[in-house]
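Fold it.
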Amino acid sequence: MRHQRGFTLIEILAVVAILALVAAVVVPNLSGFRMRALRGEAQQLAAQLELARQRAIMTGVPHRVWLELDQAEYRLEWLAEDPETAELAPPPGRNDQLDTAGNTPLQLAAPPAPVLDYQPIPGNFGKTQVVANPFYIEAVETPEGRITRGQVSVGFARDGTAEDTLIYLQDAQGDKIALAVQALDERVRIRSDLDEESL
């Protein structure tokens, strides 16, 4: 009869030591990978905010980045006339409306002002973008208070100024990054627990 042989204590300890070594190398790298992915999402949103500021200065038209917190969506918009709902200018005076000298009367009323509202900018930058899973917009801090649900926008005036705003991106493990839009700063700053960078 052959005797069944089990693992020795030294073999078990060696396997446990190898597993501990692998865990010590892999687990921190997984956390670093998550933070790099979260930072990548933050950089994409920061690029949209910076583009909104630059376009506002170059075109002289207010821009904003519209955020939908519940769906983790955002898009770049500008203050423009909606071509589908634009009001037509009144027709010029008709020939049968002549004064006593036989001339067409001069229209003294101002033409109707176009109705302006924020519209997505033309092209790919105006398309709605979604923050990739498992990341989401945790909150937006504005001068009016902290917003965690619904819609909010970060606006840029014609000269590129904006209200101080913090946008928090977070993942399922609780890692968080903040995007800081400051009133007179020319950059959007990305802040995390480790460091700070600017776009």
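Confidence is low (pLDDT under 50) at residues 86-90, 194-199.
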